[in-house]
Amino acid sequence: MKVPTTFGQYVPIESPVHSLDAKVKLGLVAAFTVALFMVDGFPGLGALGAATVAAVAISRVPWRIAVRGVKTVLVILLFTLIVHALRFDAATVALVRIGPVSIDSGGLRTGLFFVTRIVLLVVGTSLLTLTTTPVQLTDAIERLLRPLERFGFPAGDVAMMLTIALRFIPTTAAEAEKIVVAQTARGARFREGGLLARARAYVPVLVPLFVNLFRRAEDLATAMEARCYRGGVGRTRLHPAVMGAGDWAVLCCASVGLIALGVLL
Amino acid sequence: MTESRTRILTEIALTIALAAVLNALKLWRMPQGGTISLVMLPLFVLAVRRGPIVGLVAGALYGVVDFLIDPYPPVHWAQYLLDYPVAYLMCGLAGIAAPAWRNAVERGRQARAVWTSVVPAIALGATARWGVHWLSGVVFFGAYAPEGQPVWLYSLVYNSYVPLSAILCATAALAVLPVLSRVVPVAGSRQG
Q: Do A231 and B5 touch (CB under 8 A)?
C-alpha cells in the first residue's frame, strides 16, 4: 500500500495569474461560469474559449496539466455527444445512417455545443485550483464569509480549521506511510483478500493514526492557547492578502468583459 | 473561547486531514465520481466522541476540503453542494450515539455499546449520505441510466459504494473506538 504524499492541484510557478489575489480569481471564475451559461451559440463559446486559452497561456500552466480535468469527465462528454447526435427515427434527415441508427446534423451541433461548454467549464474552473494554493483559497473564502460574522457565523474559526486541516494533510500522510511501512515489515498484507479482509488489515495502521491524531489535537490546542489564541474574531495576519489597484482593475475589466460576452453573444 | 472549544477546533481540523489521507487510499473509484474508501471513518469517530453538532461541522468542512484537493468537476453548483458539503455533513448524524457511547465508556461497557449504539448510528449517517448522493444522481445524472431502468434505481445502485464503504468503516470503528476511549478519553486526560 502506497500512501500518496502530494495533495491538491497547485502548480508552483510564477505568473501574472498566480500572483493575482485569490478573491479576484474566485470572482472571475464566478463571472466566467455565469457567462458560459448565458451564451447560446458557437460565437459566444468561441469568444469564451479564446479567453480561456489566453488565461491558460498567461498562467504558464502546462497545457497537459490544464486539460487534465477533461479526462475525468470524458464519459460525460461522450455520453452528451452521443445522446444529442444519435437518432433512431427512420424519418430523420440524417447526416450518416448505419442500420436503424443515424447521426443528425442538428443534434450533432447541439451535442458539440454542450460538450464545448463542459470542456470550457472544466478547464476554466481548474485554472483556479492550479494557480492558487489551498491556503490562499481558504483565506479568500474567509474574507468572503466575514460579513456573515455579524449574524454569528464563525468565519474566523472555519478558516482556522480549514487552514490547519490543509497544513496537516501532508504530515498525516507521512505518518500513515511510516506506520504502513512498519506494519508491512511486521508481516501485514494490505493488498490480499476481499474488501473486508483489507479493512481489517488496516486496523493496526488506523489505531495508532487515530491515537496520534487526538493527542496532536490536544497538543496543538494547548500550543495555540499558550500563544493567546482566543477564536477567529478580530484575528490579524502576518501577511494579509490585500487587493491592489491591479487586482481591482483585472477584476472589474475582466468581469464586465465576460458578462458582456454572455449578454451579447 | 474556552479551552475545550480550541481543542474541538483542532480535533475537527485534524480529523479532516486524516479523512483526506484515507480518501486518497482508494479501494475503488466510480466513473462519474465516488470511491470505496475509509474516508467516513474519521468523521464517524469524531461524531461518536463529540456529538452530532461537531460531527456535522466536520463533515461539511471535509466536503469543502475534498473539493479543494480532489475535485470531480461539478455539472451544476447545486450538484457540488449536494455531493460535497451536504453529503459529508450527513456523516455527522452518527453523533446521535455520543451520549450512549459516553455512558458506556464510563461504565466500561464499550463492547456492547459498539453494537447497540455505534453501528446503528454509523448506519444512519451512511444512509443519509447515500440518500443525498441518490438525490443528486436522480436530478443531475439521471440521463446516464440504461434504457428501461428507472432513474431512482440506477442512482441507488450507482451510489451503493456508500453502504459498502460504511460496512468497512463500521468494521474499523469497532476496533478503533474502544482503544481511543482508553488511551485518549474525551475529557482530555491521558491514561495510556
A: yes
